[in-house]
Here is the input.
Amino acid sequence: MLKYRSLLGLSNARVATQVSRCRPRNISRASSSQISGGLATHLTRASASAAALRPRSLEDAPQELPEVSPDDLPIISTGDNKVAIGWDTRTWSRFHNIWLRDHCRCPKCFHAITKQRLVDTFEIPHDIIPVRVEPKVEGLEVSWPSTDPHVSVYPWSWLQRNSYDPVIHKPDAAKEKILWGAKIEQSPPAVTYEEMMAGDDKGLFKSLTNIASVLPPTPESTEKLVQRIGFIRETQYGRFWDFTSDLAKGDMAYTTLALGAHTDTTYYTDPCGLQVFHLLSHTDGSGGASLLVDGFYAASILKELHPESYELLSRVHVPAHAAGEPSAIYRPYPPSGYPVLGHNPVTGELAQVRWNNDDRSVMNHLDPQLVEQWYNAIRAWNQCITSPDSEFWIQLQPGTTVVIDNHRVLHGRSAFDGKRRMCGAYVGVDEYRSKLAVLTEKFAPDAVLRATNELPMAVVNGRNIWNSAL
Ligand SMILES: [Fe+2]
Ligand SMILES: [Zn+2]
Here is the structure.
């Protein structure tokens, strides 16, 4: 009986003890411009000092607001074009009237089954003003002027989650990324194959956050496992690969050569999301150990030791190509490619690592002032991903399937001789994230779902209309 392992974005307490020292620092989610701006107000309930309505810096904002209690509803005030909600004496969220009207989720404005907008946004007067605004137990109730009366109710938890003035940062423990290095070897994340395939989806959820399993060493079982996650993404390497080192495809993966830590398909505009691979057999030879490196961990080290290199790798675009097959030339669009370290443009968080030095194309767009600095930066990056502290080496055995997040985890292998048969597949990143979101909704609902799941008309066709993804 052998093991199946996966190394996605780990969020499991078992590995947390080993990697907690690598926790990323909090990155503020709002720029000062997002939280600036005042609001002329008059109070409709209770009283609050004018000072409470002044914009506040994010540093002052609480990291987490308490749930709204029926005995202590928020204070509401309205101004010319906004509604302000006082969560406590210090924290206010402001919502523009037009924003509120556009986000109504009543059955006339939002299709409860398809979860698509029905309201005609362009019919909303740009200067719409509510007729009445009232705090109710279930949420903020807003009556709008129209020929037939229109009342919107916005759950409190949903308003807190979607507050944009200011952004209220509520840390989501389930989504916290735990960085890992070589010490993960002591206790790699794992679930059993039976758990993963069980109909209740619990094992699948565990597997997408933290995996390992027992798997018969056959391509058929591996393919079933991949399909359990989502649609297989077909590429120039096929749909489901089953290959040896015969150079059947014009790529170094199909040789016996050592491969340094890299992510796959850097030459795509959207690189594959998950990579699943399974060593089916290795006969008449040795070597071929697998290498896994947490790119987010390596990036955190780079940022610490060489912040200027981190900045450069976050900024300079790197072109790439796959051209080993006469029938195809793959390049990303735009052809100048993407930075090695991709960030979420809204939150500033590291979102994607793209790195395969072998597939890099001509760097003909480099600022001449930056050429030497850029080479120094990739040298520093290479040191981070090849440091023994980062490298997790594992000698796979038939029956051990590896699942990695190709936007985060780099992989490689040592050279080998003999005959090695591998199989595996890619899953698109949206496919994988969709599955994870569905399972999170089911097994780890966030504060908005917990607060609204019991509201009348909230859950339609198995999905809550207040789901934070909508
Ligand atoms: Fe690869
Ligand atoms: Zn409506």
Remarks:
- The two ends are 42 Å apart (CA to CA).
